[in-house]
Amino acid sequence: MALDLDSEIDREGTGSVKWEYHTHGGQFAHWDKPSRRYGADRTLAMWVADMDFRCPEPVLRALRERIDHGIFGYSAKTDGYVEAVTAWFARRQGFRIDPDWLLTAPGVVPTLNVVVRAFTDPGDTVIVQRPVYYPFFRVTKNNGAEVVSNSLIYENGAYRMDLEDLEAKAADPKAKLLILCSPHNPVGAVWGAEELTAAADICARHGVIVVADEIHGDLMMPGVRFTPFATLGETAAQNTIVCTAPSKTFNLAGLHTSNIIIPNPTIRARFQEVYAAHSLPGMSPFGIVATEAAYREGEPWLDEVMAYVASNVDHMTAFFAAHIPEFTVIRPQGTYLCWFDCRSLGLDADALEDLMLNTAKLYFDEGKIFGPEGDGFERINLACPRSILDDALNRMAHAVETIR
Ligand SMILES: Cc1ncc(COP(=O)(O)O)c(C=O)c1O
Questions:
Q1: Could you tell me where the DSSP H helices lie in 41-162?
Q2: Is the CB of residue 245 below 6 angstroms from any atom belonging to ligand 1?
Q3: Mutate to test the pocket of ligand 1, among 136, 139, 185 (most ligand atoms within 8 A of CB)
Q4: Residue 133 CA: which ligand 1 atom is closest?
Q5: What is the pLDDT along the chain (404 residues), one digit of tens a residue?
Q6: Ligand 1 in contact with 199 (CB < 6 A)?
Q7: CA distances from 100 to 33, 97, 334 (A)
């Protein structure tokens, strides 16, 4: 199959958070010019994890058929949905899910709020591995717990876990949860079985439940294999809440469908009890059919998209080497997000943001929002046509030239 991933799709008027909004004081605010058509004046949106590619044709077909049915009442997972989800994880990830373990939710972030509420008391701590997906901080604080960082070690151009520090932090009786980002957003690391097993053993020994946020687990660079946390062994499986979704994988975030997998019946019952107290919305009929179609028929699309993203990573790396040697790409093993190190420019985090946003007119997720460990880094979203990436690269080169 040859997908057309090169064409730019104007998303103006669709309410696209990525293209029509930016964040301001924790809220979304409209850009003054929400279209690619405004040319060089336009700020390019390369921030939130949402692709500029149309989702797989089988998904579109399933949605059209569902619309033609004409009734969109309250909905919940179907047998076909459960079968498609479990078959996907078994086939793609070697993760065998008992249907009893499978719960649905309108998103991973709402789920994380419920998890922190369910498994911590005020003043308890939640361990995260900064620089990391910033809503982990918010869901912790929202629910009266405190963030403790077991920060990653950045060495020789790659990130790894600090297991000695994790042992020390998990040993604190106040530590109740580790929110593990696997694969890791923003640094693009796909954790290996050895590192994950060590982290799993530490947490199990100290009674710290591991919330494995595996929302990026299907987005592997060609040749990379993902290790689901719950496949590490019975101890890990019985001590985890796994968060997955088709939303990043197939660009369906607006359909608000996620699958939460909890093998341990006691943890599952506690989660369900607190979940019920939140009156979160049930499934959308569109999320149900789109997920089923994506997991049944979306594989060739996904493989082609990830090959395209990998070529964007190569392209950006080569461009930096030739034109902006001050920037270093941390080569992602997974995700379509790419983390790069701009520290040799010598700018502080605010000055770097000013250069990217106001001089280059590029809206990235600034490294600093992932924690202080991210100062001097940027996260760019590479699930976009090559022409948008080229525009961004040229803008960066011109902006850097102004301060050389
Ligand atoms: C690691 C991680 N978790 C969760 C989410 C968001 O999940 P949801 O839209 O299901 O709340 C994202 C989105 O970027 C993410 O990167």
A1: 57-69, 79-88, 108-119, 135-142
A2: yes
A3: 185
A4: 1
A5: 689 999 999 898 899 999 989 988 788 988 876 666 677 678 999 999 999 999 999 999 999 999 999 999 999 999 999 999 999 999 999 999 999 999 999 999 999 999 999 999 999 999 999 999 999 999 999 999 999 999 999 999 999 999 999 999 999 999 999 999 999 999 999 999 999 999 999 999 999 999 999 999 999 999 999 999 999 999 999 999 999 999 999 999 999 999 999 999 999 999 999 999 999 999 999 999 999 999 999 999 999 999 999 999 999 999 999 999 999 999 999 999 999 999 999 999 999 999 999 999 999 999 999 999 999 999 999 999 999 999 999 999 999 999 98
A6: no
A7: 48, 8, 29
CATH (one of 3.40.50.1010, 3.90.1150.10, 3.40.50.720, 3.90.1170.20) for 17-56+299-401: 3.90.1150.10
Cα–ligand 1 centroid distance for 103 (angstroms): 17
Q: Residue 129: CB within 6 Å of ligand 1?
A: no
Q: Does 280 sit in the ligand 1 pocket, CB within 6 Å?
A: no
335 lines ligand 1 (CB under 6 A): no
Rounded CA-CA distance 36/97 in Å is 43
Distance CA 224, CA 232 (A): 17
Class of residue 41 by CB neighbours under 10 A (exposed 0-12, middle 13-18, buried 19+): exposed
Give the start-to-end residue ranges of the domains of the chain: 17-56+299-401, 71-297
Task: Report DSSP state, residue 255.
Answer: G
- Quickly name the fold that domain 71-297 has: Aspartate Aminotransferase; domain 2 (3.40.640)
> Does ligand 1 lie within 6 Å of residue 255's CB atom?
no
Nearest-atom index, ligand 1, CA of 110? 11
Instruction: Give, using CA atoms, the residue closest to atom 4 of ligand 1.
Output: 108
